Amino acid sequence: QVQLVESGGGLVQPGGSLRLSCAASGIIFRFYEMGWYRQAPGKQRELVASITSGGSTNYVDSVKGRFTISRDNAKNTVFLQMDSLKPEDTAVYLCNAFFDALGHNYWGQGTQVTVSS
Questions:
Q1: DSSP letters spanning the chain
Q2: Cβ-based burial of 23 (10 A; exposed 0-12, middle 13-18, buried ≥19)
Q3: pLDDT (tens digit, 9 = 90+) per residue, 37-53?
């Protein structure tokens, strides 16, 4: 059974930082591309950052220079370091594991991030 369990969300003031974690089980983690998506009320889900099995990263323009995605294959965990947070970053953040060749696309339950003074 595949599980992706996110943690690290919460309430933070503008300009603050949070570090999200996503622990994966039931997959051979090192082979999967991992991503962080977010969904705000009334908005479409968007890809925030992704990291390939080889470590290449990609970011949506609105978070470039502020967010950093990384992975620890020994711990089957992907991280999202979020700095200089803005109110518009408020959303539920979801972890995704993707393996195109196998048609696998798995989701976590999400963790709430709220940026407010």
A1: --EEEEE--EEE-TT--EEEEEEEESS-GGGSEEEEEEE-TTS--EEEEEE-TT--EEE-GGGTTTEEEEEETTTTEEEEEE-S--GGG-EEEEEEEEEGGGTEEEE---EEEEE--
A2: middle
A3: 999 999 999 999 999 99
